[in-house]
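Example record for the data management plan.
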Amino acid sequence: PLQADLDGNGLLDGQDWLMYIAGLGATNPGVTDLNNDGVNDHADFLLFRGAFEDCHGHDSFAKMLATVPEPSSSVWLASTAMYVALAYRRWTN
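Corresponding structural encoding:
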């Protein structure tokens, strides 16, 4: 489970989950690439969920999802800007 402790604070919690989802689709996912295959994908999600449930018990991941707040509006805005830029880049090429 320590590999899934993405913020390195010794706890596997909702903050690690927010870091994981922030790395989705990243060109260089860094620590969110739990299986070191170069992408943050479904296999990494399964590893994260498994590690979380190993630490906190069966169904703890679903319970955690219900309590973690949505990312801030600035994260949403940055994500939207990234998608617009990617769409523009694809449209112009």
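Summary line stored alongside the record: The chain has a mean pLDDT of 82.
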